[in-house]
């Protein structure tokens, strides 16, 4: 690029959205063009240049702990005891939850809490998924 076009490009990068809008209107009037037919190139290029890069997606901080499947008959009682301890459910409610898997055991748990629940239930013989 020539020095002149480099300078224009640098000036465009420093414009605010309102200034870009004004520039587009003036260009449309001056050159008798319709910028919307140009695919918004000027607006898109300016917005990309003037807006900071979007941060990477944040790490997930809340997890749903889900009992993936009903445990085998020989592990059912152990899993049932752990579920009752973790949830505070009564015997019938905990039994219904375990037998009707896949079901959430805990929603919006922190990473450490979710990992702890997963470890306890898997040690008892259950299968857990974190979402």
Automatic annotation (TrEMBL):
Similarity field: Belongs to the bacterial ribosomal protein bL12 family.
Domain Large ribosomal subunit protein bL12 C-terminal: 63-131
Annotated GO CC locations: chloroplast; cytosolic large ribosomal subunit
Name of the molecule in the record: Large ribosomal subunit protein bL12c
HAMAP family xref list: Ribosomal_bL12
Gene3D superfamilies named among the record's database cross-references: 3.30.1390.10, Single helix bin
InterPro entries: Ribosomal_bL12 (IPR000206), Ribosomal_bL12_C (IPR013823), Ribosomal_bL12_C/ClpS-like (IPR014719), Ribosomal_bL12_oligo (IPR008932), Ribosomal_bL12_oligo_N_sf (IPR036235)
NCBIfam families the UniProt entry points to: L12 (TIGR00855)
Keywords: Chloroplast, Plastid, Ribonucleoprotein, Ribosomal protein
CDD domains the UniProt entry points to: Ribosomal_L7_L12 (cd00387)
Keyword Transmembrane: no
Quaternary state and interactors: Homodimer. Part of the ribosomal stalk of the 50S ribosomal subunit. Forms a multimeric L10(L12)X complex, where L10 forms an elongated spine to which 2 to 4 L12 dimers bind in a sequential fashion. Binds GTP-bound translation factors.
Function as written in the Swiss-Prot or TrEMBL entry: Forms part of the ribosomal stalk which helps the ribosome interact with GTP-bound translation factors. Is thus essential for accurate translation.
All residue ranges annotated as the Large ribosomal subunit protein bL12 oligomerization domain in the record: 4-49
Chief location: plastid
Single annotated GO MF: mRNA binding
Domain of life per record: Eukaryota
Species name: Vischeria stellata
Cell compartments where the protein resides: Plastid, Chloroplast
GO BP terms, alphabetized: translation
N-terminal signal peptide: none
């Amino acid at each position: 690029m020539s020095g002149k076009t480099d300078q224009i490009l640098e000036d465009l990068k420093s414009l605010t959205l309102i200034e870009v809008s004004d520039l587009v209107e003036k260009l449309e009037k001056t050159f008798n063009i319709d910028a919307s037919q140009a695919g918004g190139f000027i607006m898109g290029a300016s917005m990309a240049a003037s807006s900071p890069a979007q941060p990477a997606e944040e790490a997930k901080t809340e997890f749903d702990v889900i009992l993936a499947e009903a445990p085998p008959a020989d592990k059912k009682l152990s899993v049932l005891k752990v579920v009752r301890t973790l949830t505070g459910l009564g015997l019938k409610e905990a039994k219904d939850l375990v037998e009707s898997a896949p079901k959430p055991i805990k929603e919006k748990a922190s990473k450490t809490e979710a990992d702890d629940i997963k470890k306890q239930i898997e040690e008892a013989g259950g299968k857990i998924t974190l979402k």
